[in-house]
Amino acid sequence: MPIKIPDLLPAKSKLQEENIFVMDESRAFKQDIRPLKILILNLMPLKEQTETQLLRLLGNSPLQIDVGLLHTSTHTPRNTSAEHLSQFYKSIKDVRENKYDGLIITGAPIEKLDYEAVNYWKELSEIMEWSKTNVTSTLHICWGAMAGLYYHYDIDKFIRPHKLSGIYTHTITDPKEKILSGFDEEYLAPHSRHADIKREDILKVPSLKILSESEEAGVYMIAAENGRQIFVTGHPEYDAYTLQKEFKRDLDQGLNPQLPINYFPNNNPDITPRLRWRSHSNMLISNWLNYYVYQETPYEL
């Protein structure tokens, strides 16, 4: 089934080239179907890139999805035009009275900052509090996961001595968990972050459960007891070239980055990397939508 997105969103043509079923607003209005209403709080600096990555995964679901885009009005991004934000994005004041089946909170490259030092932390806290009553299930990604664990459960992060970057092998803790349905016992997922959370801090919270982890990359997926909140510390939405672009960006900035682990063939950055985690990423999003959103949300929002 398709995702419904604004007619003029730049991601639309890219997704259609990839044979992702996209339905524009004009066609969707003619159908008598109750689509899932999913809101994406996009905190990433390259918003159009992240839009495409997440819409690609949402579009692989058999469910029809009506996607909305949210940004923080207290922060002015440098890499996205004001025109794009004005045309396609809303702020919390615009959606405060609305109900949504699902919310995705993306990562942000600000792991080294204290949460309270983030200029939109107050607004983000307001959005996360709002989600408790207005959203059926929220999926937090990377920094969004750490921020969510801090806000909801007072679990703080710590700064890693070196950036965690690469494609890592993960295992699942309980194959009977619904969001892990169909997962291989071992699978690959991307990580890209300077901060982390401690496993022992998560285990201290009875209402949280670790669903998947990696020997090298640590805890990967955590769920609240009722499935209202899912936390993923990696970047399942990344495409084949995202880590490559980040590596080259850090090189250009003179940061002397380490090669992403298990990413470039033969550890040669001149060789095009391969996409080896899309099946896991598609399954993660599809399972979240089906088991924690579609099966739990009321028909009348």
Automatic annotation (TrEMBL):
Pathway: Amino-acid biosynthesis; L-methionine biosynthesis via de novo pathway; O-acetyl-L-homoserine from L-homoserine: step 1/1. Its main location: cytoplasm. It is found in: Cytoplasm. One of its GO terms (cellular component) is cytoplasm. GO terms for biological process: L-methionine biosynthetic process from homoserine via O-succinyl-L-homoserine and cystathionine. InterPro entries: Class_I_gatase-like (IPR029062), HST_MetA (IPR005697), MetA_family (IPR033752). Its EC number is 2.3.1.31. Keywords: Acyltransferase, Amino-acid biosynthesis, Cytoplasm, Methionine biosynthesis, Transferase. It catalyses: L-homoserine + acetyl-CoA = O-acetyl-L-homoserine + CoA. Belongs to the MetA family. Transfers an acetyl group from acetyl-CoA to L-homoserine, forming acetyl-L-homoserine. This is Homoserine O-acetyltransferase. It comes from Saliterribacillus persicus. The lineage of its organism: Bacteria, Bacillati, Bacillota, Bacilli, Bacillales.
